[in-house]
Amino acid sequence: MKRFIVILLVLVVLTGVVFAEGVREATPTQQGKVLNIYCWNEEFQTRFNDYFDAAGLVPDDVTVNWVITPNADNAYQNKLDEALLAQKTASNDDKVDIFLVEADYALKYVNTNYALDVINDVGLTDADVSNMYQYTKDIMTSSDGKLKGLSWQSCPGGFIYRRSIAKDVLGTDDPAEVQMALDNWEKFDATAKAAKEKGYFMLSGYDDAFRVFSDNAKTPWVDENGKINISDSIEEWITQTKTYTEKGYNNKANLWSAESWNGATLDGKVFGYFGPGWFIDFCLAPACLADAQGPKELGNGSYGDWGLCKGPQGFSWGGTWICVAEGTDNIELAKSILYTMTCDKDTLVSIAQEMGDFTNNVSAMEEVAESDYKNVFLGGQNHISMFLDSATSIDRSTMGPYDQGMTETIQAAFADYFNSNVTKAKAYENFYTAAIERYPNLTK
Amino acid sequence: MNEINLVEKDKLKRRKSVSYSRWGYFFILPFFVVYILFSLVPLISTFYFSFFENYRIGLMEVGPNFIGWANYHKVIYETEVPRFALNTFIIWIVGFLPQLLIALLFAVWFTSNRLKLKLQQFFKTVIYMPNLIMASAFAMLFFTLFSDSGPMNQMLISMNIIQEPIRFMTRTDTTRGLIEMMNFLMWFGNTTLLLMAGIMGIDQSLFDAAYIDGASSTKTFFKVTLPLLKPIFVYTLITSMIGGIQMFDVPQILTNGKGTPDRTTETLIMYLNNHLASKNYGVAGALSVLIFIVTAFLGIFVYKSLMKENSITGGKK
Predict the structure, then answer these.
(1) What is the CATH number for B238?
(2) Which of A12, A32, A336, B220 qualifies as a FRET site for B125, CA 20 to 30 Å off?
(3) Closest Cα partner for A363 from A205, A154, A220?
(4) What is the Cα A378 distance to its own chain's centre?
(5) Chain A closest-CA separation from residue B130 CA (Å)
(6) CA A29 – CA A127 distance, rounded (Å)
(7) Contact at 8 Å (CB) between A153 and A358?
(8) Confidence grade of residue B97 (pLDDT, cut at 50, 70, 90)
(9) Looking at chain B, which residue has its C-alpha nearest residue A420?
């Protein structure tokens, strides 16, 4: 009996080895059967399902496996790093095939070999990517000049305001006239004061204007010697937010919190939110609906009661890039996904018109801006034309690999200061402590 | 023939002396295998790793470089670990003391032969319930209940008790209070059951004797129940203390891992967890070793000091 069991075990192990070898030898010639996509939310998944899968472009024998890990507390990057470091030893079906990166930490992956060159390795042509906004390519270009990832969106931001509140406070809801009342920070402050007098909050919380300031920073978070550096625009954000909090111009809500979205509902009191295209359709619009299943039209919650203007300062926020992982066994499919989702003008026009996303194709956006396209959420405004100028002027040259950690850390450290729990000096100290805990290689 | 007989006899003798106790060892083997693999080996490797500088920034790996005691020096002198230890202690003790008092009261009531409470099973189940909920889910629930525009604030405002919503998560006292309350709610049922088991283990005749001698129930409690309950008492104290030192999930979820405000609710293990983002095995290892030593020391100290004079425990002759 014992001997039988031993023999059986040996056989099982051997067959495993033999078959595993067989599979390993067979794959390089054919494409893998499992496509693993690593990302942090459902945004790309929705786009992929609507514009790639729905078009029947996924081969029947390929399973698309979504590995979704939320961004907060670095969880997504930890998971992705773990998988990428194990890429060489993982079996073909477990390898990362495609991973998504955000502007805040894109550089971490761009200058490594983990992301393939989309031109030379994946096989797209320079002509395919020629229509993209230059900054989306600059961010993803490695120090040796290789393009490591592509995006379907470009992320110029604006100030998204409640039309009914604007009418009450400013007497108009026309984007051009609202812009007149907001086109520098002094005017913005004055409008905030007027809004407060009428019982509204200009902004939802502490972090709402953060991206406007951080995107206009002239210096990166970390200098070449590994020293942490708080730029002047971040200081401006701190000063402004403290003033707004003391004067009651904001609702003290945390970004992404339920309170923050409550401010956008029908009886919400928040004048407006800063955000780019994806913020409108992926975050704000769903939060405005009174009936989430109901029709997306004026009358359902505050849907349709919104307008968009440039605001006091142009800025960009975020953006998602698709990278193809080194060692993927689905390179043909990855190429096809990259082409359809980021290079194909027709798809990008449809995404813009149907979803309101500002997509990454200059001529597509010009075409939509010229057209009679109306965004229902924004009260029929053609917001693409409004974003058009800001998109070409986006400059992300101060971007660094530490941006996400620094953003999270400084927002958390200064929330205590805004809440009057600590002094400003203590808040700085707490920020440095937390940042160095997160990145032990940096110095104060 | 004779020889065969002898052999047979010998065999018989040997079989008779077969020790079945070795099966006992087989039965406890799985535990030790699992313990060594998943507890002892990681424990020892933690000691080992604490002497190295070893962390990861993104995809860049630093170390492992042997640096001796530098990590320990860093943890003790360059960080706010003493402050976090104090946070942990305060949150634990404020949650533990009422928990012990209430649990003791319930245990005495439930086991009292004179009170004969009705619906005992029901109450025992109900007080144990909160412990069945996952701590993180419990913390999420409290986070929502006590958020700025959450149900608790709405209720208080509609009852005209407060005018402005209380921002629970931005004040040290309220945030700590919420954590203490959750720990209390989660563990008092468990402690009640433990203490009940302890009380039921006491010889009933002692209570009867005290009753006949005319002792009041307060006197019975202090002179009979409490002294005889000491072993269980010490056990409860030590397990709760170890649990307290390892307090993590509730404050972590409630404060989003930040120990807000100003890290006044950051516990030792939350601080340890902060090193996860950079996979800082060295510093985290050193901190873990220190926590291990302190825990072991406290455990031994509490045990020794409370079990010193066990004169009344009866067992001794």
Answers:
(1) 1.10.3720.10
(2) B220
(3) A154
(4) 21
(5) 25
(6) 28
(7) yes
(8) very high
(9) B170
Q: Does B15 reside within a domain?
A: no
Mean pLDDT across A313-336:
89
Q: Where are the domains of chain A?
A: 31-154+318-363, 156-316+371-438
Nearby residues of A325 by Cβ (< 8 Å), 6 or more positions away: A84, A87, A95, A96, A97, A98, A99, A114, A115, A116
Is A440 within 8 Å of B261 when comparing Cβ atoms? no
Closest chain B residue by Cα to residue A408: B258
Question: Per the CB < 8 Å rule, is A78 touching B257?
Answer: no
Residue A18 pLDDT greater than 50, yes or no = no
With beta carbons under 8 A apart, name residues in chain B contacting A77. 58
Digit-coded pLDDT (tens) for A39-49? 998 888 988 99
pLDDT of residue A2: 55
Length of chain A: 444
> How is residue A316 written in tokens?
């960009």
CATH number of A31-154+318-363: 3.40.190.10
Strands A63-68 and A272-276: unpaired
Task: Determine, yes or no, domain membership for B163.
Answer: yes
B176-226 confidence digits (pLDDT tens): 999 999 999 999 999 999 999 999 888 888 888 988 998 888 888 888 888
> Best mutation site among B53, B148, B175 for testing chain A: the one with the most A CBs within 10 Å?
B148
| CB-based contact, B280 to chain A, within 8 Å | yes
The CA distance from A391 to the nearest CA of chain B, in Å, is: 29
Peptide bond connecting B261 to the previous residue in cis, omega within 30 degrees of 0: yes
* Domain boundaries, position B129: 79-274
- Cα separation of A207 and A251, whole Å? 11
How close does chain B come to A78, measured CA to CA in Å? 7
Cβ within 8 Å, pair B147-A434:
no
Residues 62-91 of B with CB under 8 A from A: 62, 80
CB contact under 8 A, A85 and B57: no
CATH of domain A156-316+371-438: 3.40.190.10
- Name which of B38, B61, B40, B73 is nearest B279 in CA terms: B61
- AA identity, residue B191: T
Instruction: Tell how strand A250-253 and strand A203-205 pair up.
Output: parallel
Kindly report the backbone phi and psi dihedral angles of residue A274, in degrees, each rounded to the nearest multiple of 5, phi listed first. -85, 135
* Burial of B237: CB neighbours in 10 Å, binned 0-12, 13-18, 19+: middle
Are B121 and B107 spatial neighbours (Cβ–Cβ below 8 Å)? no
- Contact across the interface for A81 and B278, Cβ inside 8 Å: no
Residue A398 has pLDDT above 50, yes or no: yes
**If you measure CA to CA, which chain B residue comes closest to A437?**
B275
What's the mean pLDDT in A93-105? 89
- Please give the sequence-ordered ranges of beta strands (E in DSSP) within A398-437, or none if there are none: none
- What count of other Cβ atoms lies within 10 Å of the Cβ of residue B180? 21
> How far apart, in Å, are the Cα atoms of B174 and each of A167, A206, B8, B82?
40, 21, 81, 22
Centre a 10 Å sphere on the Cβ of residue B77 and count the other Cβ atoms it contains: 8
Chain A interface includes B232 (CB < 8 A): no
Look at chain B and report how many structural domains it folds into.
Answer: 1
Two tokens at B164?
Answer: 């402005």
DSSP string computed for B114-135: TT--TTHHHHHHHHHGGGGS-H
Tell me what the pLDDT averaged over chain B comes to. 85
Give the Cα separation of B251 and B178 in Å (integer): 9
Contact B170 A421 (CB under 8 A): yes
Q: What is the pLDDT of residues A239-265, one digit of tens each?
A: 999 999 999 999 888 888 888 888 888
**Nearest chain B alpha carbon to A253:** B148
Say if B32 falls within a structural domain: no
Q: Are B120 and B181 in contact (CB under 8 A)?
A: no
- Are B59 and A401 in contact (CB < 8 Å)? no
| Minimum CA–CA partner of B58 in chain A | A108
DSSP per residue, A49-84 = IIIIITTT-S-TT-EEEEEE---GGGHHHHHHHHHH
